[in-house]
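Q: Hi! First time doing this. I have a protein sequence and I read that you can turn it into a structure. Is that right? Here it is:
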Amino acid sequence: MAVTPRKRNQKKGIQPHLGQGRFYFALFVVFAVFASLVGRAAFIQVIEPEQLIYEGDRRSLRMDPTLVQRGTIVDRHGRELAVSVPVQTVWADPQRVHEGQGLANRERWLALAEVFRTDVDTLMARVADPKRRFVYLERKVTPAVADYVRQLGIPGIYLKTESRRFYPVGEITAHLVGFTDIDGMGIEGLEAAYNEVLTGTPGERLYRKDAQGRVVEEISTTAAKQPKQLTLSIDQRLQSLAYAELKKAVRYHQATSGSAVIVDVDTGEVLAMVNSPSFNPNNRTDLQPHRMRNRVITDAYEPGSTMKPLVVLAGLEAGAIEKDTIIDTNPGWMRLGGRRVSDPINRGEQSITEVLQNSSNMGSSKIALLTGVEQLLATYAAVGLGNDTGIGMIGESYGVLQHRTRWSDFEVATLSFGYGLTATTLQLAQAYSVIASGGVHRPLTIQRRAEGELPPGRQVVSRENAEAVLLMLEQVVADGSAKNARVPGYRVAGKTGTARKAIAGGYGDEYVTLFAGVAPVSDPRIAVVVTINEPSGDDYYGSTVSAPIFAEIVGDALRAMNVAPDHLEDTQLRVAGFGGGQ
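A: Yes, that's right. Below is the predicted 3D structure, encoded as structure tokens:
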């Protein structure tokens, strides 16, 4: 059938209208899609770009840290006391473990658990979540363990290099140097006190990688800040000698603990600081808390008769006595406010030197009462009691030195023979170093002083009186109660001390024995104090417990320091000669 021209014309009239609508609809859709894309792009780029930037950087940015070893601690001669060594740490990527079927072979996990000394189920539970990407399995293992882990070849188990602290001399310097935690932060001793000095700042390299792992951009490089080395005033030779003698004595007397310290008289440097019992800082698996205390600075005791030389010094400073004053101690006892002060026997009239030689409570009490409590306390404070020593170590005790407006005569008397106040072993060493240095008080230090950095010190008592007391203390060792402190070849000055330990409501049956002294008297070099806490048995006197230890430590120390003997009269010298016939 033929199509009429009219129908063709009608159809052509409708088609442009419909085509135009479709065109505008399509154009609207295109513009709408374009507008939404532009809006979305604007929203992402302008309003909230951080998330996508973060996601992009997370996939392409990489940062490689530059490891910095913790600073070394060395003694005054450069011998290492604490060093950092590289070790391996075992870690796992749980996602890779699951992807590589790493959990399928239980035998390898049993072997890994055995070498880590842990339960295999606990170990496998750490990698049970496939969404996790990092978990520690064992920190800072030995090289042998690291090699064993490599040989096991468990998928997803890796090694990375870390740093571990190592202490070459172990228990000898454990209380002094301290130790770090698993992350290398100091938590005890000098490691904690000087943590910022010993900790450097790691460097880092920031760069961008493409999908194939190739470096496409170097963004920044930050140089590492190296830590400083800590050089101590400690002489490792003297530290070892003192520790050996102290440990032996504590074991022999079955004492609870013991402490000893050696101080350089001229500089205030601490040359040795030891305690027993000690611990191994390289293996703290079964470490008991009471072994960790640095008792030289933390434990304060009533110092007993080691205070008597300071009483004499206070009396001389106040003008209450002279060097040749005679003290009448008849009848060997006296009552003060209803309380009794006495000597073991009636010693009658005694010179000041004899008061110290015989360790007379009567003599020291009468000197203290003549001097007055204000002058007595002022002298105690001047030589360092009741204050910090300047050493700057964490946990140092100031001891107790009371300042009250009213004191009974009996309380003043007890102050004279070392009761009613407390002091640490280090404070006592500083006090005796003041006597040895001619009345000059210097703050103590645990860091080696550089040449020309000697602090001037303060003249707290007159040189004449300090030297007079020093000579009196020499007689205490030569002919008095401290004969066990003699050191062959050297002139030694010192004083014994025995104090009953205070308990709630009074005093118990335990004692602290002390000896404080100086050597050599002709040119004082070192002040040494030995404290033995709660020795067992009937032998609990400073003259028989602490004095012999002092003698051994001082003798060893002076020889190690190459100090020339100043008292050869008490030694027998063998002269080697050659004989021949004529």
